[in-house]
Each structure stands twice: as C-alpha cells, then as structure tokens.
Amino acid sequence: MKQATTESPSHPLLRSPLLSGMAVVLGTVLSGSIATAMLLRFTSLAEASLPYFTYGINGAALIAGGWIAGRRAGRKGWLYGGLTGILYVLLILVIGFLAFNTTMRVQPFLFTICATGLSAIGGIFGVNTGER
C-alpha cells in the first residue's frame, strides 16, 4: 500500500539550487555587513581592519551558499556551488558598474576565481552532507 506524502508542492523556483544558494549568500553578506557596521559604530574597531571583515564575510557567505546549492542539487555540488559563486560575482560587478561606474581591472578576475573556488568547495561539502 502506498502512503501519501505530506509534502506540499512548492514553486519550482523555490527549489532551485542556484536561487537557494544565492539567497543564502546575500542573506549572509547582509547580516555580516550589519554586524560589522555595528562593531565599527559601537566599539573601538579601526576602519583599517574593514577589508579583513569584508573578505571574511564574503568567504563565509560563498562557502555557505555553495553548501546550500550543492545540498539542494544532490549531485554535482562543485558545479552548482561554482555557478552560485559566478552569479554572485556577476551581481557584484553589475552593481559596481551601475552604481559606482567602475572600470574593469584585474581584481574582479581574481575575485571571480576565489569566489568560484570557495563556492565549489562549499558545494562539494553540501552534496556529501545531503540526505541520501
């Protein structure tokens, strides 16, 4: 006898590994940025240490987003994680270009390589911690 599942059907976009990963990346970056702003405002933390916080927040967000994307996908975690990193970099580049009129330099290419690598590592761990 077959049992009925209790899962409610959800919209396909909500189950997308890439969108789930991006949501986690953006949420982590937002919350980390707010926490850093609070630290700068209410402690004696120097603004000179801000780049370290920025790199740390972005790195943690990319690993977490890749992990979620890989876990959601259930296979090819490196691919879904890496694509999540590439989407994040594209979003940052578009925002930088439109909002701040930045030009292309070497730094975005290095950021793309690092972001893709960190997200891919997160995706590999996500697949391996998923339900089987």
List keywords for this structure.
single chain; 132 residues; mainly alpha; 74% helix
Layout of helices and strands:
Blueprint: H1 17-42, H2 50-73, H3 77-100, H4 106-129
Could you explain the architecture of this structure?
With 132 residues, the protein is mainly alpha-helical. The chain has one domain (17-129). It is built from four helices and no strands. α1 (17-42) runs antiparallel to α2, α2 (50-73) crosses α4 (106-129) and α3 packs antiparallel against α4 (106-129). The longest helix has 26 residues, at 17-42.
Please, how many domains? 1
Query: Structural class of the secondary structure composition?
Result: mainly alpha
User: From N to C, what is the helix and strand string?
Assistant: HHHH
Find the count of extended strands (DSSP E, 2+ residues). 0
Sheet with the most strands, sense and barrel status: none
Helical segment count? 4
Work out the radius of gyration: 17 Å
Indicate the low-confidence ranges by residue numbers.
4-9
- Beta-strand fraction estimate: under 5%
Shape: globular
Distance between the ends: 23 Å
Mean pLDDT: 85
Q: How much helix is in the residues?
A: over 70%
Organism: Salinithrix halophila
Protein name: TIGR04086 family membrane protein
InterPro entries: DUF3792_TM (IPR023804)
Keywords: Membrane, Transmembrane, Transmembrane helix
Summarize the structure.
The chain crosses the membrane at residues 21-40, 52-70, 77-100, 106-127. The chain is an all-alpha fold. It contains four helices and no strands.
